[in-house]
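Target protein
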Amino acid sequence: MKELYKAFQPTLTEAGLKRFGILLKHTPPCKLLRGIVHSYLQISTEKPTPYPVIPDGSQAIFISPHGSKTSGAQSRTSDIQIRQPGDYFGIRFYPGALRYFFDLDLFDITDQFVDSQYFPCRKFGELHNNIYRYQHFHERAQICEQWLLQQFKPQPVTKFDQALTLIYQSFGNIKIERLATMVGWSSRHLNRLFRLHTGLNTKTFTQIIRIQHACRKLYTTPDDSLNIALDLGFFDQSHLIKDYQKYLLTSPNLFFNRLKSDFYNRQTQN
């Protein structure tokens, strides 16, 4: 499956990793799971640290030596607290991709982290033990991939996939009524499928995709916020800032200063 959307997590940028003292390893899935599984990753830290996650419309599985938790779609930024040093493994999925493995209503876990009992799969409860039997990252990734391939249910391209593609191609700047018309569904039916497969209603999902693109652009060109706002269909710069505050709980400047300034201040103090 072709990749149309690259979720942006500032914590996994060079500045974010330095700021929080994290080392990152990651690898893509096999060809069969491309466009469904985003990546397998492992973060390592030598001390307790927050791990900020911003909304990106997707789900992820977080795995530690003590167990596994599944993250529903997040509608606002949150900090995962890593309380002990060590290696922490993860599987990142593309939005709507868990339906290739399990029959789930993802709206039930929006803005939540749920334990291994959520998945209708007994082997999931032992996944963390199987992973941490191995020391090397790529061996751990293979264990995860083997588990996913055992659950994998190929599916044909649907109108829901078409709707996702249209949202990605427009960078989230598309009216829901127009989107529904283009795929040949009612807005109500489209919304029901988005709640089921992403955990978010259609409007919230498109707004999160748009703020994702704004985050990526503002990270690389922080002084160009007005043009970024207009390019993404915001009426003006203040409307971009309003959406930032809604989903990231702060202004763009304060958000990115959290990633950068503390690191530079610490370097100066040393």
Observations:
- Residues 10-151 form one domain.
